[in-house]
C-alpha cells in the first residue's frame, strides 16, 4: 500500500501505535502537520495509560505480588513511550517547505 494514502486516514484506537511506528520511518512521505498530529494522539494514549497504571499502583499500596510487578512494568513502558514520542515531536519540521526528512 502506498504510504501516502495510508497516512491520510485517521488513526483508529487499535491501530494508532502500529501506524505511528510504521509512519515515523517514512515520515518524509507525510506532511509534517499530519505526522505531528498522529504522534500527539499516540502520546496522549500513553499518557492516559500511565495515569491508569499509576492509579492502580496507588490502590495496591505496598503490594509485592507478581501482578504488581507487571503493573510496574506497564507504567515504566508507558513513561518510556511518552518520553520517546516527545523526542519524536521535536524532530518533526515545524515550518518551511514540506520535504523528506
How are the elements arranged and paired?
Blueprint: H1 3-8, H2 16-23, H3 32-60, H4 66-91
Helix pairs in contact: 2-3, 3-4
Summarize the amount of helix as a percent range: 55-70%
Major sheet summary line: none
Order of helices and strands, N to C? HHHH
Structural class comes to: mainly alpha
Global Rg: 17 Å
Work out the number of β strands. 0
Strand percent estimate: under 5%
Weakly predicted, low-confidence segments: none
Q: How many angstroms does the end-to-end distance come to?
A: 21 Å
Shape label: elongated
Q: How many H/I helical runs? A: 4
Query: Averaged pLDDT, please?
Result: 80
Question: What do you see in this structure?
Answer:
The chain has a domain at 32-92. The protein is 68% helix and 0% strand. With 101 residues, it is an all-alpha fold.
Could you list some keywords that capture this structure?
mainly alpha; 68% helix
Short description:
The chain is mainly alpha-helical. It has four helices and no strands.
